[in-house]
């Protein structure tokens, strides 16, 4: 079975979109405890704190978000008997391999990355001028994350497709130039994507809460807050609970959310609320979301009350990740002609 690697950035709090789109998928891809795949670290997940520094950041917040995200992932069901979880900056090989690959990646291909263009151009020419070199180099760091673990599959959202393509290109280029060194990875996308949209602006993806506090459901929101956010979600002037992304984006989003948290299909949700008012529908969605998040919420608070346990998990994860990454870094360094350090 192919090894799977994925990463998630500790910026802002986790919202329902992250949870349904990425985290739940990760939890489900973990091999069974005790299996050969589990022993072989078939599934590796990383809190990518170095990537969180590519836009201006607050140090205390970064520390806190990193710990909180790791705690959240454990609360969501990443199980140490089934997968490996670690923090990117704890394994130095990520930064080191990035340097080597920086010298293989070209300026032109990085300049063409749409995420870089979007994030740097947000503030016009001045934005580009002040964008960090880290933001520009973000994709190469991500390539290193993937290649260091001989990962064959990288489950990501659609917005990361281009970065995984770059990982393929660079792996192929490096192998061609310096001999077979890296496994060439490929991106995998969810078969049926729960694309969770903003509750206030259903034409755009649910995103960080500071951009749209009322439109974003946080996994740690208290039930009352979730209830209020869903009840004030925008719908449309009609009255039918019917799925039609173009004509009824708000209602369609709520239908998809309800389906994702209850396991019902869109058609089943439509049938359940056939002839019912929006008010009743929204109340049902709110209750379903609250119940869906309750166990994660409870587990999160239990774990957060006992930070030693998370520290222990992250220490074990970092050791195991390092043991996998170091030989790959050594292989790449040797292939590139760096003189091995005499022992
Ligand atoms: N760039 C990814 C995102 O924003 C996060 C990420 C960093 C990642 N390194 C990775 C994802 C390696 C997959 C594999 O979502």
Give an overview in words.
This protein has 14 helices and five strands. It starts with a strand and ends in a 7-residue tail after the last helix. The protein is mainly α and 343 residues long. β2, α3 and β3 (84-87) form a beta-alpha-beta unit. A three-stranded parallel beta sheet has the order 1-2-3. A two-stranded parallel ribbon has the order 4-5. Bound molecules: tryptophan (TRP).
Annotate the secondary structure layout.
Blueprint (H helix, E strand, L loop, with lengths): L3 E5 L7 H14 L6 H4 L3 E5 L11 H18 L7 E4 L5 H10 L4 H5 L2 H8 L2 H7 L2 H15 L5 E3 L5 H18 L7 E3 L34 H9 L17 H14 L3 H7 L5 H27 L2 H30 L7
Parallel strand pairs: 1-2, 2-3, 4-5
Helix pairs in contact: 3-13, 4-8, 4-14, 6-7, 8-9, 10-13, 11-12, 11-13
The chain binds tryptophan.
Distance between the termini: 36 Å
Strand count, sense and barrel status of the largest sheet are: 3 strands, parallel
Largest sheet strand order: 1-2-3
The total strand number stands at 5
Roughly how much helix do the residues carry, as a percent range? 40-55%
Pattern of helices and strands: EHHEHEHHHHHEHEHHHHH
Individual helix count? 14
Compact description:
This protein has helices at 16-29, 36-39, 59-76, 93-102, 107-111, 114-121, 124-130, 133-147, 161-178, 223-231, 249-262, 266-272, 278-304, 307-336; strands spanning 4-8, 43-47, 84-87, 153-155, 186-188. By secondary structure, the chain is mainly alpha-helical.
């Amino acid at each position: 079975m192919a090894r799977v690697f994925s990463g998630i950035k500790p910026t802002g709090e986790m919202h329902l979109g992250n949870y349904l789109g990425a985290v739940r998928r990760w939890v489900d891809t973990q091999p069974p405890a005790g299996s050969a795949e589990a022993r072989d670290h078939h599934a590796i997940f990383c809190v990518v704190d170095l990537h969180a520094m590519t836009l201006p950041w607050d140090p205390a917040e970064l520390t806190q978000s990193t710990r909180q995200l790791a705690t959240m992932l454990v609360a969501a069901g990443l199980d140490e008997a089934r997968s490996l979880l670690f923090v990117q900056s704890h394994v130095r090989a990520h930064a080191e391999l990035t340097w080597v690959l920086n010298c293989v990646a070209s300026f032109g291909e990085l300049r063409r990355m749409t995420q870089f263009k979007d994030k740097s151009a947000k503030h016009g020419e001045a934005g580009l001028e002040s964008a960090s070199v880290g933001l520009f180099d973000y994709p190469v760091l991500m390539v290193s994350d993937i290649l260091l673990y001989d990962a064959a599959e990288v489950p990501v959202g659609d917005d990361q497709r281009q970065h995984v393509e770059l990982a393929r290109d660079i792996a192929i280029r490096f192998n061609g130039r310096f001999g077979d060194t890296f496994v060439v990875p490929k991106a995998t996308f969810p078969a049926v994507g729960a694309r969770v949209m903003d509750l206030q602006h259903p034409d755009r993806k649910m995103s960080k809460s500071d951009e749209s506090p009322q439109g974003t459901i946080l996994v740690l929101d208290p039930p009352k807050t979730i209830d209020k956010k869903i009840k004030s979600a925008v719908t449309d002037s009609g009255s039918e609970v019917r799925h039609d992304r173009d004509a009824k984006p708000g209602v369609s989003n709520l239908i998809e959310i309800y389906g994702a948290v209850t396991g019902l299909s869109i058609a089943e949700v439509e049938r359940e609320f056939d002839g019912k008012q929006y008010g009743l529908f929204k109340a049902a969605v709110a209750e379903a979301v609250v119940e869906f998040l309750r166990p994660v919420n409870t587990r999160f608070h239990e774990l957060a009350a006992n930070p030693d346990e998370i520290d222990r998990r992250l220490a074990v994860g970092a050791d195991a990740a390092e043991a996998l990454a170091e030989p790959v870094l050594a292989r790449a360094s040797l292939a590139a002609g760096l003189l091995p350090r005499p022992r």
